[in-house]
Amino acid sequence: MTNPPLKIGLALGGGGARGLAHIWAIKAIEELGLEVDVIAGTSIGAVIAAAHASGISGNDIADYVDENMRNAGKIAGQIFSAGASELVDLLNPFQPALVNGLKLIEILMPDTFASDFKDLKIPLKVMTANFYEGGEHIITKGDLKLAVAASMAIPAVFTPVIIDQHVYIDGAYANPVPYSAILDECNFSIAINVNGRPIKDKSVKPKLKITAKSKARALAEAEKLQIPNSRDVLYASNQLMQNAIMAEKLKLSAPNIYIDAPIDKFKVMDFHKAQDILKATEPMKDELKRKIAEQLDV
């Protein structure tokens, strides 16, 4: 009895700018001489997945990102619809969303990015979350850029997207790494998680009432504390929630390969650090190639 032909499914998770690391997954598969047969993406994972499904190679995606994301000021001016005075500290999470999701897609992806699902070279599933009905919603047809914008509509950062009178937000709130959407359509599944975890990267001294007697001890404790600002709390809370969702999903079913990208030190809106992200995550390419080779004997 012959084995069925290999069908590779790739699922790319959400994580904002950290998702640029997905480029290495595509390059790893290509360097092994393999091809993706079905692909799913959430949030930034949907952006990269849609690009590859459009027929854009990993090398071409990387080259485009390198060419277009070197100027941080230019990126901010293009992405944000607000004036410069409103860009202080990037975002105030208690103000209306400022980021134009469709504009960001145009900046991130080249002109060869397809406009409609029917123009794709690889079947694609874009994960979103239905705001009013709750739960995940997978988009597989229609306006591709609009679907991807819906998938990456992080609350308080991107404006929610309306499609067919339904309101959609970031798919990571329902399915952060959407490998479950491809398991029935492939016999070898790969999933990449770029969500990460919040880390301590700066020291913040809280305002404490310190008596002379306890001053030295209190100052020592204060040095150890790192209190995040409101924006960091918003983003990190999403990270914690998404990691909890994935932990439960992995108990129910798992892909053949699941990789956590080494991106903890980067934040969701660090698009101006594109080259740093790619450099820090490059080792995952060889890690993935090794794991694929071990399981498929290629």
In words, what does this structure look like?
The protein has helices spanning 22-31, 44-53, 58-68, 72-79, 101-108, 144-151, 215-224, 230-252, 274-281, 283-296; strands at residues 8-12, 38-42, 124-130, 136-139, 161-163, 166-170, 188-193, 257-260. With 298 residues, it is of the alpha/beta class. Strands 1, 2, 3, 4, 5, 6, 7 and 8 form an eight-stranded mixed β-sheet that branches. The chain is globular and about 65 Å long. Mean pLDDT is 83; it is low at 81-96 and 203-208.
Indicate the low-confidence ranges by residue numbers: 81-96, 203-208
Put simply, the count of helices is 10
Quick one: biggest sheet?
A: 8 strands, mixed
Q: Order of SSEs, N→C? A: EHEHHHHEEHEEEHHEHH
Cα separation of the termini: 21 Å
> Based on CA inertia axes, which overall geometry fits?
globular
Overall SS class: alpha/beta
Overall pLDDT confidence: 83
Q: Estimate percent helicity.
A: 25-40%
Q: How much β-strand is present in the residues?
A: 5-15%
Keywords, separated by commas or semicolons:
298 residues; alpha/beta; eight-stranded mixed beta sheet; 13% strand
List the SSEs and their pairings.
Layout: E1 8-12, H1 22-31, E2 38-42, H2 44-53, H3 58-68, H4 72-79, H5 101-108, E3 124-130, E4 136-139, H6 144-151, E5 161-163, E6 166-170, E7 188-193, H7 215-224, H8 230-252, E8 257-260, H9 274-281, H10 283-296
Parallel strand pairs: 1-2, 1-7, 2-3, 7-8
Antiparallel strand pairs: 3-4, 3-6, 5-6
